[in-house]
Amino acid sequence: MVEDETDQVTLDLEQFEETKKEDTKPTLGDIFTDRVESLMKHRDIDNVLDDQQHILNNLEMMNEKLKFLNLISQSRYEASVTAFRFHMRLLSGVKKDLDSVFRRIRTLKTKLGVQYPEIMAEVQDKYTVHVSDDDDDE
Questions:
Q1: Contact status, residue 120 vs residue 113, Cβ threshold 8 Å
Q2: What's CA 33's distance to the chain center, in Å?
Q3: C-alpha distance from residue 47 to each of 11, 36, 50, 79, 117 (Å)
Q4: Nearest Cα to 127, choosing from 109, 101, 102, 107?
Q5: Alpha-carbon distance 46 to 52, whole Å?
Q6: How far is CA 71 from the centre of its chain?
Q7: How far apart are CA 79 and CA 25, in angstroms?
């Protein structure tokens, strides 16, 4: 008996929709929608939606890969900066040490030149190094 009532309601609903369609004139929106639907096949729309979903999945995957790459790059950059700072301090120390050594050598040369002027003149003539203008020495 319940089935009979359900069937009856379904039939009444279908009849109502048919009479409603017959009684009212289609609006411009209905006409436009019907024509667009007639131009496009549902299979084509499903294909477009599938392609869009595939592209979205690819973009999300690439976004995750880029996030991972950025994390790796950040950690390597920080390690490089730390190593660079260490090497800069090391080079600064070496430069100070070399400056000190050359200053001492110049001081010793001056003292020896004062104490032994003839010998220093001979040594300078014999072991003089010709420095070109291209060198960036002091």
A1: yes
A2: 44
A3: 35, 17, 5, 48, 98
A4: 109
A5: 10
A6: 10
A7: 74
Residue type, 1: M
pLDDT digits (tens, 9 = 90+) for 44-59: 888 888 999 999 999 9
Decide if pLDDT at 11 tops 90: no
Model pLDDT, residue 46: 86
> What is the DSSP-derived secondary structure letter of residue 33?
H
Q: Rounded to whole angstroms, how far apart are CA atoms 93 and 87?
A: 10
Q: Which residue has the tokens 């660079």?
A: 84
The answer to pTM > 0.70 is: no
Q: How many whole angstroms from its chain centre is CA 82?
A: 21
Task: Return the DSSP state at 134.
Answer: T
At 38, list the tokens: 């007639």
Using DSSP's 3-state secondary structure scheme, residue 101 falls into: helix
pLDDT tens track for 62-93: 999 999 999 999 999 999 999 999 999 999 99
